[in-house]
Write a structure and sequence with these properties.
With about 500 residues, the chain is α/β, with parallel strands linked by helices. It contains 18 helices and eleven strands. The strands form two sheets. Strands 5-4-6-7-1-8-9-10-11 form a nine-stranded mixed beta sheet, with helices on both faces. It has a two-stranded antiparallel ribbon with strand order 2-3. The chain starts with about 30 loop residues before the first helix and ends in an 11-residue tail after the last strand. The N terminus is likely disordered.
């Protein structure tokens, strides 16, 4: 069989090809024979295309001619037409293939075709080699950028850009999707129900430690993006901190047969505190656990017994799996990389981000803040699915809430709301009527003051968590107790939960 002269080393068929001498440089990884075999299979039987079409693209082929053949074949097949050497030759034009015409080359591809059964394996080989070539290009870019970096390009910016490119490859370089059997989905659903039966509180998700909230949501569900939104002063950070600490405190595990730990109750928590420092966060948690006002702890305005309570609480919390990252100005690519690292090194069951608007997107695509936030929320939802953990992200609300008489927030109040509302599985709003009433105190002794006092007594120490969206459950309002000095949310005492009166 004569070899193709122009493609002597690269596009010669394995049968009858003369081995080429070793080049003086390292060639990028490629497999021309696999490309030829797959293209031949598609031209012989178009069903082979269906086995690779969900993950393979024309740019994954190493040879320009092969890219064009695959692209044209895919266009014909998707249009419901037949892709064969005869139908393709009119779209490829004339090429000098070392003595072979285009029709002859297509006929040779069909003659050397692999079977449809092997098409997916060949496609994955081509795809994986393309990813490796992309990694080589990124590596070269990193080296060149480090050597020739301009004055205004800091190493941190170069690291962020490299992470963004690697993250893009990780997202596009996956072919583990597609349909699965319904019986497999049923098995997963039954396993989830069995775990819920074993878990405290009979929840399918991870308990927040707040009974009424769990009753609405069934706990925090794996792979969900949960948004906690509110105006400043409403206590959204306090609620997220309370939930995160409750989960970490309840952590229990057992060892699987392979020796790896498996979470039974609670969970390992990762907390990205983009606004507050780790020390401020720790002070809040100590205040909540010891019932000593946080402002008193910060000022040192405590008694000796209170100090001992603080020290004892700190000792008890030493072993809790609660990890804080206080780095400010993180990009979504950096956050994703750090979350993956935590999952790999320590384990991860819940991720908290405080808060959404302090994250940044990639520099290359931030044409507007709305587009940047779309990239961020899409990235957080993708991260929740990839790590199979709930991601709880806090969000600010727009000022239009303040202009209404009823200041209870709604979905349209979310700042740059389109992407947040769309990507989130659950959206919760924190609302405290007491906060607004406190600022409207009328003159003491007036009739309005008596009405105001009555209203204050009604709402004092109460907070509402308004579930504005939930993909797998009802929407509605959950009432919680809130202690302002300790920034603590807790279950509200109800008549039906109280012991019987004698």
């Amino acid at each position: 069989m004569p070899a193709v002269e122009q493609y002597a080393e690269r596009i010669s068929f394995s049968q009858g090809a003369t081995p080429s001498p070793e080049p003086a440089y390292r060639a990028a990884p490629h497999n021309v024979e696999a490309e030829q075999a797959l293209l031949g299979a598609i031209l012989v039987n178009n069903d082979a295309f269906d086995r690779v079409s969900d993950f393979l693209r024309a740019e994954h082929f190493s040879e320009e001619l092969h890219r064009r053949i695959f692209e044209i074949a895919s266009q014909l097949i998707r249009a419901g037409k037949l892709a064969t050497p005869i139908t393709l030759k009119t779209f490829l034009g004339e090429h000098d293939l070392g003595g072979l015409t285009v029709p002859q080359y297509l006929a040779r591809l069909a003659a050397e075709a692999t079977t449809v059964i092997n098409a997916e394996d060949y496609g994955r080989t081509i795809h994986d080699l393309a990813v490796r070539r992309d990694l080589i290009l990124i590596g070269e870019d990193i080296v060149n950028a480090a050597y020739d970096a301009p004055v205004d390009s800091s190493p941190r910016m170069q690291v962020e850009e490299a992470e963004r490119k690697l993250y893009a490859i990780a997202e596009t370089g996956r072919y583990d999707g597609g349909f699965q059997r319904f019986s497999d989905a049923l098995t997963i659903a039954v396993d989830m129900a069995a775990k819920a039966w074993e878990r405290d509180g009979r929840l399918s998700g991870i308990s927040t430690g707040l009974t009424d909230l769990d009753r609405y949501m069934g706990g925090l569900q794996a792979s969900d993006l949960v948004i906690i939104a509110g105006r400043p002063g409403m206590g959204k950070t306090a609620l997220a901190t309370n939930i995160a600490f409750n989960i970490a405190k309840a952590y229990e595990f057992r060892l699987k047969p392979d020796g790896a730990p498996e979470t039974v109750n609670g969970g390992i928590v990762g907390f990205f505190s983009l606004e507050m420092s780790a020390e401020q966060l720790a002070t809040r948690i100590i205040s909540e656990q010891t019932e000593i006002a946080s402002y008193r702890i910060r000022r040192g305005d405590i008694t000796e017994p209170e100090f001992h309570r603080i020290a004892e609480a700190a000792r008890d919390m030493q072993s809790i799996p609660f990890y804080i990252d206080q780095t400010g100005g993180l990009s979504i690519a950096q956050l994703t990389a750090r979350a993956r690292r935590l999952k790999r090194q320590r384990g991860l069951d819940v991720l908290v981000v405080d808060y959404l608007q302090l994250l940044s997107g990639s520099k290359a695509r931030s044409d507007s803040r709305v587009q940047e936030l779309t990239e961020i929320t899409t990235g957080l939802k993708a991260l929740a699915k990839e790590l199979n953990v709930p991601v709880v992200a806090l969000s600010q609300l727009s000022r239009q809430v303040e202009s209404r008489d009823d200041k209870r927030p709604q979905l349209s109040d979310l700042r740059e709301s389109g992407s947040i509302e769309q990507d989130a599985d659950v959206v919760m709003f924190v609302f405290r009527e007491e906060y607004y009433l406190k600022n409207k105190q009328p003159r003491e002794g007036s009739e309005e003051f008596i009405t105001w006092q009555t209203d204050m007594e009604r709402v004092h120490g109460r907070a509402e968590v308004i579930i504005g969206k939930q993909r797998h459950g009802p929407t509605g309002t959950v009432e919680l107790a809130f202690e302002d000095e300790m920034t603590r949310f807790s279950n509200l005492a109800r008549e039906d939960n109280l012991p019987e009166r004698l």
